[in-house]
Amino acid sequence: xxxxxxxxxCDVRDATAEDENKMSIKQxxxxxxxxRGGGVDVDYRTLYEAFFQHQTKPEGMTQFGDLxxxxxxxENTKSSNFRPGFMSERLREALGMxxxxxxxxxxxxxxxxxxxxxxPNARIPGLNAPLPTGASYGYHVGGWGKPPVDAFGRPxxxxx
Length: 160
Fold this sequence. Notes:
This protein starts with a helix and ends in a 47-residue tail after the last helix. It is elongated, with a radius of gyration of 31 Å. It is mostly helical. The chain is 32% helix and 0% strand.
């Protein structure tokens, strides 16, 4: 953190490392056996000021009384702009989807294995919601795979 860097401990540590690099192996072993080495000399007043007067809180800490839940530290405003099931034009272009009527590349596997367990109530076209207008089921290029059926084998969203 910034308040520790201001103490100058990094400079002292670098100077100590330079001194050790200049030593021969005999001197390093002698220092290690004698037990006198390894002490970094930092002014205690500087450390006190760093930790008790100039210390800053990290960003994203909860306030007093806030409820903490698992994964809260990973939440941020950047990820709150995204919603599951909605794709931006940029994402569609990256996935090679020609337009909004072309199916996502993972739809066939979702039809085979089911929706993601994290989003059991998500409405996914071609899986548990009707297709967009102008789209059709099938395995041809731009086709939306197998139509979803009920327990009796009848299509859920129109069709024959």
